[in-house]
Amino acid sequence: MAAQQGPRRGKRSDKPTIADVAALAGVSVSAVSKVVNNRPGISPPTRQRVLDAAEKLRWSPSATAVALRGARTRAIGMVAGRAADVLAADPHFSVLISGIEAELAPADYGLLLHIVGEEPSAEERAYRRLAEERRVDGVILTESRIGDTRFELLRQLRLPAVLVGTPWRDDPVVSVRAGGEQDAGIREAVDHLADLGHRHIAYVSGPEDRVHTVFRRRVFEAALEERGLRPTRIVVSEFTADAAVRAVRQLLAEPQRRPTAVLFANDTMAVAGMSAARRLGFEVPRDLSIVGYDDLPIGELVYPRLTTIGQDLVQLGRSAATAMFALLDGSPESAQPPPVRPPSLIPRESTGPAGGVGG
Amino acid sequence: MAAQQGPRRGKRSDKPTIADVAALAGVSVSAVSKVVNNRPGISPPTRQRVLDAAEKLRWSPSATAVALRGARTRAIGMVAGRAADVLAADPHFSVLISGIEAELAPADYGLLLHIVGEEPSAEERAYRRLAEERRVDGVILTESRIGDTRFELLRQLRLPAVLVGTPWRDDPVVSVRAGGEQDAGIREAVDHLADLGHRHIAYVSGPEDRVHTVFRRRVFEAALEERGLRPTRIVVSEFTADAAVRAVRQLLAEPQRRPTAVLFANDTMAVAGMSAARRLGFEVPRDLSIVGYDDLPIGELVYPRLTTIGQDLVQLGRSAATAMFALLDGSPESAQPPPVRPPSLIPRESTGPAGGVGG
Questions:
Q1: Domain A75-179+314-334 of CATH type 3.40.50.2300
Q2: Which residues cross the membrane (chains A, B) (predicted)?
């Protein structure tokens, strides 16, 4: 480090210098600099000695501003505008965080997680605090919304931001998303079910203020139309297991409108829906085929194993972290990381030929 | 806060004061103090004005040390010495974090998560960095180990620490744990199975370097003995779904040693084990009863619903955060929060009378 190695001898002034502090503390100038800039590599006792020397000499860095501005926090923020139990209830987030952590950990970065509840202004307040208190170097966002106001806010706050997912229209944000055709996995799932003879396919969708919800529903309808089919039912639902159970009860209640296959917006809902169907006496896949979305670990734990549309959430998380580091290094042009493999169908045991009691 | 309200008028010196900065920036002295101490409530433009004024006057707080020492980070650290995918693979952590976040969010605190991999020194390095760089106000630990060295390290680093779980012997750490008899839930599970006529009960346990693993195994053996029984088998396993599948294959392979009921160390393992048994042709609970541990959401999603030993992980997380705030407020005597309800059996559908093919 090309730090200044001592005071300029000729000029005497009342003002203590960094070298005076270093001398009194018995450490190098660069060690004092590290303490001031909160950089690693200084033991707590040495740190204390430096702080004591600085206090004794009434020395402080020529501009505190430099220290306050310059030091990286080595933390990336993630604010979830969801209920406190979101990590437990929606493992999608946990998998994404796994991917983010896989890149942060080797760089000695941590992920500062704020789960702020569903009140809309709470997320904005959290971003403002993170920016004002300089607690993170940047933030990773998820769940792109229609008319999303977060990107403009973060631009005003000068907080670097990376979105996991597809921005709505020309939202001004670096984003990472799966490569290939938008939601090709949905099309593959529809083809898979149609090839198995299904003509009555329902879709249990997520809340329609999410960008991906709207995209996926469109692809679902277009893919059915290409096979000369129309959706048997589309149920718009919350992303919860309880909502999935209610949707399945509703879908299976009327024999004349009963689907032989159901696509769910995520794996948790699909597993809950599968159990609800079996509890109502429908065997899976004999009487009802089930398809999930995300390829979460739960899909492989259950019996029958869940057919699902796999997206590489771990790689999406890794890419988001990589893009963030590129932004922080001042090379936004390289912040667009290599594309993540497109979502695609993973056929397992929960789908089978149409032709059971509902077929 | 008793911040200095202005310069002493009598004495003139070359050194600018906080009041000069406040005057130049057109803000109050306390606003300057807030900027310097990274406290909330200052808008970014105001903050910028203060920093510019400080730079122009070449002013810095009388002791940078005060700023560096005094400011809270509003972050609590959690270091997991586990693989990057731990949150996805072991939802136990996700639920605990949900509880921690439920207390942190209203206090405007975030959780700084470091998942550092399983190399033993990585966790220590992470704590050292967190302490040296003052990135968190304190840390919450989990997975108490036998001969745990983390508490002594954190004491040396002066990093306040709260353990979720039972410390080994007299480890010097504030801990939060469930009330009541240690692992009473295991006893209830054994009684439940014995009452259902089971005489051949196996246990798939976690790694034996964990304190809770050792405690629970002892309680399991003692509870069986009280019913005049001995464990059919104890399989020591990793906390993974794959390990659970291997354990079940092993347990069901030899008809003469086959258990009619299996307790698992966690719910993920229990669900994976249940699916493995069914894939081998054993109906649950007709041929094999299954009990999990933790009461994670997955247990209610699957069919049959999982009988499990419920511990209130959300409340444990909340209590850990509450204890941390008490420590940070300098009232360690009140850091021992109200006890969390004891673990207890939640009978659902995966346990039934002994007497199937293996009974």
A1: yes
A2: none
